[in-house]
Specification:
The chain is mainly β and 334 residues long. The chain has three domains: 146 residues, Lipocalin; 129 residues; 37 residues, no CATH class. β14 and β15 form a beta hairpin. The chain starts with a helix and ends with a strand.
Length: 334
């Protein structure tokens, strides 16, 4: 029986990862790079994994600042095996890559690459040792990142409890991770526009709120970020004239909080209440994700109407191949 469940898990994992073949998965987390006596920590690096087939994929590492600015590069064809307990293993392996810097090619020779993708907590733990160009000492780079989930849908924005405006399509990036024994969430509030408001066409800039923790009274991951020192850009244009344009801080004497709710592993809603600068009223944005209630998989060889998403919740184009979600149902595009 255990063997049957193992095989079923492997098949499910393969299907889920196969749907990512055309879209790299991003993982964000703290990293460390060492070379000789240098030791550089970065609290937030982004690595990407793009699956090629059921046994190999491409891993892109970020620019390593502080290490003579080693540029971003891609390790192609890294091999892995899919096992039980929601774990995908990349056994220790050599690798090589070539990058162009200022019109000159530089070689990267890797003596060791090993990684683990744990689907239970969506973490990607990687270690790579390599030489870069004529660098006399090898670099050892380690990172543990957590999957950044993109969710796209409409947003409703209420200004001053009196006027409500909408944007039909905005995308939030949400990262759930472990900080010691505490589960936390980081959420990037996207830049978006609101047209034809009382004060004109508005543009609100992006910012990231970190360290949301679960609040049972709120029913989701919550944070009051009024004292976090965040800023964002805000502009307004009316009748062809720019009336507001600048960077603003959030009013620390008012409520500025964000709530992210989940149903299992799926983000269902994001509610953000904030008040900037000396603005006399607050703004409340409500974002609800409607791509739920998935029950069946249908084969469909025709272009489809409506919004299409991959398994990770990312919007995909009409020529995307694999499993897609449309209006809460799964389809297999060939």
């Amino acid at each position: 029986m255990k063997k049957i469940f193992t095989l079923l898990f492997a098949a499910f994992t393969a299907a889920s990862m196969s749907a990512q073949q055309h879209t790299p998965m991003s993982f964000v987390g703290a990293s460390n790079a060492k070379v000789s006596t240098m030791d550089v920590n970065n609290e937030s690096d982004t690595i990407q994994f793009k699956m090629n087939d059921l046994t190999s994929g491409d891993i892109t590492l970020p620019e390593m600042k502080g290490m003579a600015a080693i540029p971003s590069f891609t390790i192609k064809g890294a091999t892995f095996t899919m096992g039980a307990n929601h774990v995908v293993e990349f056994p220790s392996q050599e690798f090589s890559a070539t990058i162009n810097v200022g019109g000159k090619e530089k070689a990267i020779k890797g003596s060791s690459l090993s990684a683990t993708y744990n689907m239970a907590d969506n973490s990607f733990d990687l270690s790579a040792t390599f030489t870069y160009g004529s660098m006399p000492f090898p670099v050892t780079y380690t990172v543990k990142g957590y999957y950044v989930k993109s969710v796209t849908d409409a947003i409703s924005v209420c200004i001053g409890s009196a006027y409500t405006y909408t944007n039909s399509s905005v995308t939030y990036n949400v990262r759930k991770y472990k900080d010691g024994d505490v589960e936390k969430v980081d959420v990037t509030v996207p830049a978006y526009t609101l047209d034809n408001t009382l004060i004109g066409n508005l543009s609100l800039g992006a910012y990231t709120v970190k360290g949301l923790v679960y609040d049972s009274e709120q029913g989701g991951f919550y944070r009051d970020y009024k004292d976090d020192g965040l800023t964002f850009h805000f502009s307004a244009e009316k009748d062809g004239n720019t009336t507001i344009n600048g960077d603003y801080v959030f009013n620390s004497k008012k409520d500025n909080n964000i709530l992210v709710k989940y149903d299992g592993t799926k983000v269902t809603s994001i509610i953000n209440k904030f008040q900037m600068g000396a603005m006399p009223f607050d703004i409340v944005s409500t974002f609800n994700v409607n791509t739920t209630a998935i029950n069946t998989v249908k084969t469909d060889n025709k272009p489809m109407d409506g919004k299409a998403y991959n398994i990770a919740g990312q919007r995909v184009s009409d020529d995307y191949k694999g499993i897609v979600i449309i209006n809460g149902k799964k389809y297999l595009r060939k």
